[in-house]
């Protein structure tokens, strides 16, 4: 199977989901969507962690997703570098300073016709189930509405058959070390290899990164504010490889035109040969006859 080289990235396993939930909580805290969807994070931080744990565990174990991680040397004070709340003891045993730990992650939802489904997996026969989560940090109405707005924006812009970067996060203690660019570049290179367009709902912090990699603005996704939070939330729907859209249809059409042209040409050659044969027969028949 033809994938871009992984380099220092590795394929996530179900056992990584707990550590990833810390990275995601610490980083998503800086996306405007976080305040909008999780207004009670400070009260119920364990529910936020559990929610990302479930989302990543599902993606890691789903054939429709590729989840890649990047490790770096653990910084003992990492949780002082985020305004998110990570309760002590989250994630089991605390690593030693300098140990390799996951600091960055990307989840890519493959396009509906992708040949990569079920590939690049690291499950090793392991299947984990996330515990029930009461989701007390969430505003469920806003969360559901955002899902609906995102799907509608992709449909309106004919990007609903694209592959999707569904999540990309780097723990704030490890920002600006190139981890985000490395992950996004791998995703973009997969789109180039597959000749399939790829979209992302980009929060403000990632917009320059994606635009510098060649993603282009399709639309805005906007949740209008309400009484409790008049700010609402907004991201940009960006896309890479719009020229690949319809590529399959175009290739099929071209193949069909070539086939029809070839058949017509063969028919024409046959007809000419038959006509010449008849003319010969008529001319020589008259001469000798
Ligand atoms: C966006 C994000 C993934 C980038 O990760 P990263 O490892 O720091 O990325 P890189 O080191 O490769 O830097 C790439 C660009 O990210 C942006 N960036 C990174 N850290 C930033 C910061 N503290 N403030 C503003 N922009 C920042 C910059 O545009 C940077 O390019 P520059 O260094 O040329 O200015 C990371 O900042 C993050 O997780 N943010 C919070 C969650 C989020 O918004 N995720 C995106 C959802 S689509």
From TrEMBL:
Give the molecular function GO annotations: acyltransferase activity, transferring groups other than amino-acyl groups
Superkingdom, according to UniProt? Eukaryota
State the signal peptide span.
none
Q: Which InterPro entries match?
A: Acyl_CoA_acyltransferase (IPR016181), GNAT_dom (IPR000182), Trichothecene_AcTrans (IPR052523)
- Region Disordered, as annotated, extends over 114-140
Q: Could you tell me which Pfam families the record lists for this protein?
A: Acetyltransf_1
Q: What residues does the N-acetyltransferase domain cover?
A: 154-196
Q: What is this protein called?
A: N-acetyltransferase domain-containing protein
